[in-house]
Amino acid sequence: MRARVRTYDRASWFFRITATFLLIAAALLVVDFGLRWTSDMFGVNDRSSEPTPVPVDVAGTRLTIPGNMIRYANDRTGEPVNRVDLVVHWPTLGGFTNETARDFADASDTPPFFYLTIQKRESATDSAGRLSSVYQHFFTDRRVPAPAGLVGRELSEDSGLAGEEVYFEAGSTRPFTVHCMHDDGTGFPVTCMTEIHAGGDLSVQLRFRKGLLPQWQELSRGMSALLVSFGVFLN
Questions:
Q1: What CA–CA distances, in Å, run from 79 to 56, 60, 100, 235?
Q2: Where are the bilayer-spanning segments (predicted)?
Q3: Rounded to whole angstroms, how far apart are CA atoms 86 and 95?
Q4: Does residue 94 contact residue 100 with C-beta atoms inside 8 Å?
Q5: β-pair partners for 207
Q6: SS3 of the chain: helix, strand, coil, percent, to 5
């Protein structure tokens, strides 16, 4: 009996360490994207208003993306890259133009744009996979208000991410799942991020302000339509 208890304790310890590592890794993605968003608010970007499609080789997968969606000039050269960062006008699903320049400088909780990052897959699971393998083991008993079609749960102190929130689609085998940062009370808008795995060993991360969360279905459909148009194969 003692051996069984020790085996169980070791397995439980190993699981919690692994799950916590994966959870923190996911949170670091959200923080990184929040910092990138902040840099754009201060004009640290290299946007183009030229919509001509540009060939982009991301980790060996050939894509074609409108030039005015690509954030950085060195990703518009046609040279192979490990990742490409995009900014997309919402809800038109267009790129940056002189006419929409003010929209892309919107620092509110509901700005009319979102970010996409297409890169070589770096994690074993995407957001939907982390829901069952990681997130659900660190939920508190308290549910948080959520837009129609989503369930909102708060992460516990044991996760190391106390107060951060996860929203997921109820009743789906591959649920839309998004991780939102903690509202620190400063008034700065909260960033949310979801990741999906795609073909060609790629992953795609969508990030947006929490104020756009009620439009999650439209955002998800819009992202999928764009990815297909770029040449990304969706699993």
A1: 7, 11, 28, 26
A2: 13-35
A3: 9
A4: yes
A5: 115, 193
A6: 35, 30, 35
CB atoms within 10 A of CB 219: 22
| Cα distance between residue 212 and residue 112, in whole Å | 9
Cβ–Cβ under 8 Å, residues 69 and 45: no
pLDDT in tens, 83-139: 999 999 999 999 999 999 999 999 999 999 999 999 999 988 999 999 999 999 999
| Contacting residues for 107 by C-beta, under 8 A, at least 6 apart | 41, 189
What CA–CA distance (Å, rounded) separates 232 from 177?
20
- The residue to which tokens 């955002």 are assigned: 219
Report residue 113: phi and psi, to 5°.
-165, 165
- Do residues 20 and 160 touch, judged by C-beta distance below 8 A? yes
Task: Supply the pTM of this predicted model.
Answer: 0.83
Tokens of 69: 């969606």
DSSP secondary structure code for residue 6 in this structure:
H
Measured distance CA(126)–CA(28) in Å, rounded = 14
